[in-house]
Amino acid sequence: MADPVASKSGFLCMYMSNHPDTLVAYVKHWGKVKENVASAKMKNIDTKASATYMLPFQGMTLTYTAKTGGAEKEVRVQFDPPLLGYEEVKPRLISMKVDAEEALGMARAPQITTFRLPSSTWITTTAMACLLYVTFSPEPHAPNFHPAFLPAHYVRTTLPDWAITASWGMIAVLHPLEAVYALVVARRHRMPFTVGPSLPRRTHHCTCIAMDAQERARILEIAQQLRTGEGRTVEELMKSSDPLKGAEAARLRQWFSGHRMVPGRDIQDDFGRAVFFGLLDVLQEDIIARTQKHAKSGESDPRAATVRDIYNMRWGPTQVPVFNLILLSTLLLKSMRAEHLKIARFLITDMKVPVDGTDLSGAQALYHAISTKPAFDPEYGQILYDAGGDVNARNRYGDTAAAEIAMLTGYDAETTRRARDALAWFFAHGGNVDMRNNDGVSARWVMSSAHKQMMQHVGMNRPLKDTPMWDVVLDEDARRKGLGMDACAFCGRGKKQTGRALLACSRCKGAAYCAPPSKCQNDDWKVHKEKCKPYKPPRNTYLGVPLDDILG
After folding, report:
1. Quick check: 551 pLDDT over 60?
2. What domain range is 136 assigned to?
3. Does the UniProt entry include the keyword DNA repair (predicted)?
């Protein structure tokens, strides 16, 4: 099969020729070239190893010239992990650029001038106070002895003689070294020496930033595409139903958030009005009339034709389907909620209308019912779920309801409580927060970004588990890890919850998935394949010697 990246190698090389500093960074950092590089060029780029062209792994071939002169040299840079297609090239190149420039000191980092006392300081302070207390408390026979010093005497007599001496020795060695390290870093980055105690936390924070380089680069790329008007217009996107990413996804998101269905303007038909006002008898009469009309027109199955009509109905500029209309009706006419739910049950149980109809964004009614935007309605969500709704169903952007839940609109108690409850419901029904959307972003990453933004708002010292929703995520991670092969690696449920057997991954044997017709393994493959290695059965041994060698 042809290499989709190699076929566009010429264009990519021409594009990168406009970024000479980036190419130099690639050569020095990723190519591990120690010489002073004057200039560099990209020769080719591909995603397939080739023995014919002596390319042992997928990557890019760069040529460079040293400042000392001499002939042009060549270096091969490997893509690790491998690229999956052409759409990953630009984000990967940008991510590699960020990492290379940071490693080489070419990136201009912001200067740190302020100090915030880390929350972990109390641990060090308490430990030092205890050591001083144990070391210098008087003995019982001393004239200044007090009963308050009895615990110190007990510790001294219980511990080995060398324990306290060793503790002071570690302090005498490690603390001066830490101070020297803080001084060197502070001078290198032109920081006041007083910020030294917060350097370990800042180092961790910088590591997290580096890990997110690819995502940040992708966001910047999308913003640039929006400014330049790349991609189809909103009118063209509204006429299509294909998956969207990049500028097109951002463009439709912006339009969608600014438009909504207005009942008085958009609901002009009898069926829609019956749904909106919770008039089940009127709705049933409309269905009978539609069925009779189809029968007179010669339809072989008039009832099925009526179900198709209901399934295909849409209202308003955002093309709201019937089960989403029911959800919106419960929010706008709260006193009629019981009637609205009766209509939902009638359409599901009696008419067998599928619940997977989507609006213009590709989102199903279950998505909106649990996403907290516009509502978190677990009762209605359960009705849709029992009728075949999928909590992991994606919209046109590739997002699940979890990504919407993760985007908090505020940090007040009610907002965070609702988000926690929605996420817990999502997990309980087989939700997965590691599915990546069409731009490679997962709900977990969205929550991580929200956590970092909150840290900037309330300070860098708040534990992760104490931030909104993260306690739910960490508890679910621990639960799934504890179950191991007794739970599906994707949805986290076992045979008792789903009624389906669990089947091990045929390649690595290290992950279990719900048996077909479940799509758990297919949905998890993009994440799982990064760690899926061929299974190697353990070798039988006798007294530590492989039996193959003994019988050999």
Report:
1. no
2. 122-189
3. no
